[in-house]
Amino acid sequence: MRLRIFYSTIVLSDIHLGTSNSKTIEVSNFLKSVNCRRLILNGDIIDGWALRKGSTRKWQKKHTDFFKIIMKMMEKQGTEVIYVRGNHDDFLDGLVPMSFYNIKIVREFIHESHGRRYYVTHGDIFDTVTTRAKWLARLGDVGYTFLLWLNSAYNKYRIKGGMSYYSLSQAIKQKVKSAVSYISDFEHELVRFAHARKCNGVICGHIHHPENTYYDDIHYLNSGDWVETLSALTEDEDGKWEIVRYEDVINSLVDGSTINVAS
Fold first, then answer.
1. Separation between Cα atoms, residue 157 and residue 166, nearest integer Å
2. Measured on CA atoms in the order 45, 156, 159, 169, is the torsion positive or negative?
3. Which residue has the higher pLDDT, 258 or 79?
4. Band of residue 132 on the pLDDT scale cut at 50, 70, 90
5. How far apart are CA 185 and CA 259, in angstroms?
6. Which residues pair with 162 in a beta bridge?
7. Residue 228 contacts residue 169 (beta carbons within 8 Å)
């Protein structure tokens, strides 16, 4: 039996199930390789915007399988699941807040660990483009979809040449001044809000940019996404947070280098 890596908490966001760019197989494989007490699904897990567009993006068996894996985690491991509503899964608005079995569906959440309080939000409420001009956000979504298509084509070329995966879309965003400025403003706004809520840190997603840093005394954490970066946030038994990448986790299991393993 393959050993699983154990974490106290895992945070996933921005999987965008229902889109062609979602790395559903990879995120499912990731969950099959881990155990955790608490799994936080921090928004945009299901992409309702894409599913409403019609026949080009349909719900597939692999998307259902993703949730079956989570159900097994709940049944076999006793994992608590916190589903935080994001902007792309805004169809949940009529349900939140809701609790059943070992699942909570919420708009926001306070994660308490080792005497520290983390404000958990998808992050879209701090994005004025999303909250005040949804039509503009959807227009931007079209451009982002094109960027991801370009990224996919570029990486097919790299794979044929024997080269490893490279996120062209991430590299482009990090060189565009307006994108860099937007990310910085987004982070500072969330940090200010966490401080106002008397929290020690904030955990978010939304901008597809994984981060683990401090702004003064506030711990800022972003789980990234499963469209470009294939990243997650993990918290160990001692309360230490890390950004983990899909490739690193899978490689650690293959070469047997994992040291923090569930029994």
1. 11
2. negative
3. 79
4. very low
5. 38
6. none
7. yes
> Strand 109-113 relative to strand 116-120: parallel, antiparallel, unpaired?
antiparallel
Q: Are 225 and 13 in contact (CB under 8 A)?
A: yes
Give me the residue label for tokens 């199930």.
17
Q: Is the Cβ–Cβ distance between 119 and 194 less than 8 Å?
A: yes
Class of domain 5-254: alpha beta
Query: Between these two residues, 209 and 255, which has the higher pLDDT value?
Result: 209
Confidence class for position 54, pLDDT limits 50, 70, 90: low
Higher pLDDT among residues 151 and 172, named by residue: 151
Domain range summary for the chain, segments of one domain joined by +:
5-254
- For the CA atoms of 40, 46, 48, 52, the dihedral, rounded to the nearest 10 degrees, stands at -170
Where are the alpha helices (H) located in the chain, listed in sequence order? Answer: 24-32, 48-51, 61-72, 128-132, 134-160, 168-175, 177-196, 246-254
Q: Measured between alpha carbons, how far is 154 from 167 in angstroms, rounded to an integer?
A: 9
Mean pLDDT of the chain: 83
Q: For residue 190, give every residue at least 6 positions away whose Cβ sits within 8 Å of its Cβ, in sequence order, or none.
A: 121, 123, 126, 202, 204, 220
**Residues 12, 34: contact at Cβ < 8 Å?**
no
CA distance 123 to 89: 13
Strand partners, 98: 105
